[in-house]
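Bug report (template v2)

What were you trying to do?
Predict the complex of my protein with magnesium ion.

What happened?
Run completed; filing so the output is reviewed.

Input:
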Amino acid sequence: MKIKHISVFQIDLPLEHPYWLAGGRLKFEVLDATLVKIETDGGWIGWGEGTPWGHTYVPAHGPGIRAGIETMAPFLIGLDPRQVLDVERAMDLALPGHLYAKSPIDMACWDIAGQVAGLPIADLMGGGSRTPQPIASSVGAKTIEETRAVMERYRARGYIAHSVKIGGDVERDIGRIRDVEALRKPNEIVLYDVNRGWTRQQALRVMRATEDLSVMFEQPAESLDDIAALSGKHAAPVSVDESLVTLQDAARIARDGLAEVFGIKLNRVGGLTKAARMRDIALAHGIDMFVMATGGSVLADTEALHLAATIPDANCHAVWACQDMLTVDIAAGRGPRNIKGHLHLPEDPGLGVHPDEDVLGDPVATYR
Ligand code: MG
């Protein structure tokens, strides 16, 4: 089996509500999505998606995905898509770095491999849990009152897990955490996501001032060096996502005890093949996980769900999904959808959901 065609599509995915990172630092209104269709000589078709959370969130660029695929495509035509490690090496040789450009190719190859094997991707990876995964909401808001309102909006949709954005203002952050905790329901999972929005002194002030609440913080400072400098000076569990990019990052975090949780962002780390190694490092070191797409349609959410299903239930807190935040649906309600705040693993072989091509329009590029 050989890769014959790679077609690349672009679509804008508008957010239903404008979205701010911690403290109103960055505003997002539309996501630039790249969908990739891989066709083989035997007629198998796989789909992948790469959708960064805008251009300003982390070093991942929508148009950069398309440019990266243009560079890598000549090295991929003719490879067997089921040999995901060969495809991974070919991409790494053709274009060092730029992991976010590789994830849609990796995803489409896993989709084909699963279809050929007659298995959902999670089962092909070794076995997928059928326990429904809680979806973490994304509560981006400027004021404490807005945070309260956004959480209520998600609760009304059944969500029990929430990623509450904080960062940028010490007193407001302490107030926001106390407000959310006072209203938190007994079964709810809440992660306070700083999105790198604190300096070291700000981090220590908030983390120490809220020690009585026993809450968890994500990415409390800019870099792994900053997070290492905080380590041992506060009592809170820490999740790292934006600074978890390479396998070397994962090894350092595990070895140096920088975090108790990995937030694995599939587009950020380069796809399922690379993320599976991070999962194994985490499991070997007593580190739990959140799994997320970074952004995008139900396809990206489904990819995250497959990885989450390969993690023992006790070690996977939630998946973060973007589908309920968008006004455009490229798969007309198909695939895993929010049911009482949870996603259920699809039983179809491969990824389990494909987009409607008429919604995507013509490809912006086809390589053959
Ligand atoms: Mg985060």
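What did the reviewer find?
Residues 193, 195, 218-219, 241, 263 surround magnesium ion (CB under 6 Å). The longest strand covers residues 3-20.
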